[in-house]
């Protein structure tokens, strides 16, 4: 039995802790915040009409089998803890210029028919060809990448790629390039581009292999958890406690001790004595690990390409607007948004808030999260991370957040959804706020920008492991949960 310390009680940390405790290890989790969940945050706003409850992080659960596997591996059933609600549509796409909307769903035949009805037969045929390619990429990724450690480019090169898999993955081609090759309708290209932002990346530079992301969502479905996605954190905490894991909140790890090439424990703020450990699992951003907790200049050097962040509005809306659970309102010029959010430091072009961004609106039809006759809106737009570098924005600048919030509401009004005279309240969450709340440097949602090669799960010292969205296999709830499985499998059982 190993003494294992997990740094951070996000989904990755809790999932790893539960798996390790279920195999006989002695596990302690230290969390800097006063609650668990990490980026799976929650917020409650009380009004005379009643209470509004918001998820302030992920709003969609995909690949449900990953979570079924997690709970079964710890001796439980997912359905005993969580109420999964399938979504149809998964996302309602509202394109610029008016015209028909497009509702995605988990039935490939039905979704193709919806594309044909909304965008025409040629668009439907284009999508079918792309879908076949996406399936091939997903199968190769799922088989060879998502459930094993990938520590270096050599590991990727050593995989037994089949010729057909390599042709589908198209090394060197961007997701944007793949869309232009396969999709003639600019609206379908917009739909595909958006999935690059799921990994924090610019579709013009993100690898074509990210076509596996929409495949995973549309092939296996999108799900909501009744009561909000934050209930996943509650369920994982309960599993951990039932398995004997010690979870300490308000406990900040300031350093990982690793002399002689292996870990010996961690240091806590305000505590003189070190906490001994045979294994340390870090569920914090890889940049924080290699900059602050265990300084490592070589690994730190590879973490400069940060992912995008998000600007969020939490709205209490009177009445019913008739929106779907998830809605995306596309801009006239998607490239202008990416130019703004990512900037171009090489040409001296600074990042800035996008003037006319895509707006993502989540409205859960769930009486557990809003008073009767009202809606709780989570509004998200892509945004530069917080900071003073050319690729960032100082979101603490006086007046900036309030002015940008007003602009987003104006953008929604121009796109046919005007709720400015129906707001009971609005709350703002900037990338700076996310950075403070979760320890994500600059509020970057996914650590480094998306790609096939993320920071490795295996740390530079024996006994050090990394999990979470900033590490392999990437961001998003299922990938974070798979990172926990990879690390727990590598550590192995206590017996």
From TrEMBL:
* UniProt keyword annotation of Oxidoreductase present: yes
Q: Start and end of every Amine oxidase domain? A: 12-290
* Keywords, sorted A to Z: Carotenoid biosynthesis, Oxidoreductase
Please name the Gene3D superfamilies in this protein's record.
FAD/NAD(P)-binding domain
GO MF entry, a single one = oxidoreductase activity
The record, for Pfam families, names:
Amino_oxidase
Q: In which pathway does it act?
A: Carotenoid biosynthesis
User: What's the superkingdom here?
Assistant: Bacteria
What NCBIfam families would the database entry show? crtI_fam (TIGR02734)
Query: Can you say what this protein is called?
Result: Phytoene desaturase
Q: What is the lineage of its organism?
A: Bacteria, Bacillati, Actinomycetota, Actinomycetes, Micromonosporales
């Amino acid at each position: 039995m190993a003494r294992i310390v997990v740094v951070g009680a996000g989904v990755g940390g809790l999932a790893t802790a539960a798996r390790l405790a279920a195999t006989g290890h002695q596990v302690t989790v230290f969390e800097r915040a006063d609650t668990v969940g990490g980026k799976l945050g929650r917020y409650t706003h009380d009004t005379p009409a009643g209470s509004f409850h918001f998820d302030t992080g992920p709003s969609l659960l995909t690949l449900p089998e990953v979570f079924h596997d997690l709970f079964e591996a710890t001796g439980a059933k997912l359905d005993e803890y969580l109420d999964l609600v399938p979504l149809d549509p998964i996302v309602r796409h509202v394109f610029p210029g008016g015209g028909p909307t497009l509702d995605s769903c988990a039935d490939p035949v039905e979704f193709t028919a919806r594309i044909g009805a909304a965008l025409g037969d040629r668009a439907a045929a284009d999508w079918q060809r792309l879908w076949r390619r996406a399936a091939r990429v997903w199968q190769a990724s799922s088989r060879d990448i998502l459930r094993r450690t990938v520590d270096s480019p050599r590991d990727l090169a050593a995989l037994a790629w089949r010729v057909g898999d390599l042709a589908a993955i198209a090394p060197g081609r961007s997701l944007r390039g793949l869309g232009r090759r396969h999709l003639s309708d600019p609206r379908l290209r917009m739909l595909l581009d958006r999935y690059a932002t799921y990994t924090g990346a610019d579709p013009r530079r993100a690898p074509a292999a990210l076509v596996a992301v929409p495949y995973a969502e549309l092939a296996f479905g999108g799900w909501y958890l009744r009561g909000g996605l934050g209930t996943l954190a509650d369920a994982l905490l309960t599993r951990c406690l039932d398995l004997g894991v010690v979870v300490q909140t308000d406990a900040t790890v300031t350093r990982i001790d690793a002399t002689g090439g292996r870990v010996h424990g961690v240091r806590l703020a305000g505590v003189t004595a070190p906490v001994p450990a045979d294994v340390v699992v870090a569920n914090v951003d890889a940049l924080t690990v290699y900059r602050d907790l265990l300084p490592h200049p070589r690994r730190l050097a590879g973490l400069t390409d940060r992912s995008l962040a998000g600007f969020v509005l939490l709205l209490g809306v009177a009445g019913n607007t008739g929106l779907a659970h998830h809605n995306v309102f596309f801009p006239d010029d998607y490239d202008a948004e990416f130019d703004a959010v990512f900037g171009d430091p090489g040409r001296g072009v600074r990042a800035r808030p996008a003037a006319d961004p895509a707006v993502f609106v989540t409205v859960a039809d769930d009486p557990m999260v809003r008073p009767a006759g009202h809606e709780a809106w989570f509004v998200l737009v892509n945004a530069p991370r917080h900071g003073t570098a050319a690729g960032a924005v100082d979101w603490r600048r006086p007046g900036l957040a309030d002015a940008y919030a007003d602009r987003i509401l104006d953008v929604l009004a121009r796109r046919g959804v005007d709720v400015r005279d129906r707001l009971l309240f609005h709350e703002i969450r900037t990338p700076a706020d996310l950075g403070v709340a979760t320890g994500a440097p600059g509020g970057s949602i996914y650590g480094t920008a998306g790609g096939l090669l993320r920071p490795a799960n295996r740390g530079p010292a024996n006994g050090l492991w990394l999990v979470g969205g900033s590490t392999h296999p990437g961001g998003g709830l299922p990938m974070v949960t798979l990172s926990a499985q990879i690390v727990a499998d590598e550590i192995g059982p206590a017996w």
